User: Fold this.
Amino acid sequence: MGRITCSVWIGMTMCLVGCNSMSTFGEFKSKSQPTATSRVGSPEFSSSKKLKDPVKMHLAYAGWHEQSGNYQEARKSYLKVLQKSPKDVEAMLGLARVDRAFDRQEEADRQLQKTFKLHPKDPRVLVAMGQVHASRQEWPEALEKMQAAHKLDPYEKMYEYHLAVVEAQAGEITAAMEHFTRSVGQAEAHYNVGFILNEQGNTSEAEFHLMKALKLKPDLKQAEQTLAALRTHNHDPVQPVSYNKKAQARPSFNE
Assistant:
């Protein structure tokens, strides 16, 4: 298959219902990751002169800059983390993402391989590698990495979601529906599959899944908008929906 750029793949996955971190090659919020607000000028980290955990502070600061597109400052903060904690997986993955944002693909690949060598059993690393393979349409390799991540933590819905995305992109629709349904719900599963099929030019199958999504959840606005765009050939971007980690039995979504 032909090679596609990371930015094209990122733009597509940002419109899926689920995790809003698909665009950052493994940058999703783990149980230990500090949070930062998306509002410019208000990162949530301590302003105390005597910081109890400067590593977490710099990680939060780096993530805030990265989300704002200020990659130079993000890189500086990730490097500060690695000065104090040379094997920190989030900082290592962050450096790889920043290099990729600057189109330094070889440097990013080396950084990712270094991270994998140090953390071969960390599902965050495997997801990051799987997303890079998917951005290059290297589907067997992408599936292998996502399956490995899901196997390491089979009860974490985030990894099952990432696996489902790649399965749908690779044409494994039955498997994708199963994993999407378990991670985000049945209606959202049909929407995600429909969205991916539409992006791939399979409009008839896409329409089928989008209609199924609306039948199950008539107020699923993303499905309604995508179906309307498909039928009118209007490909205006659909706003992304964030994965809500506060879910209990099933995750809910900000719609």
User: Anything to note?
Assistant: Residues 2 and 82 are 36 Å apart (CA to CA).
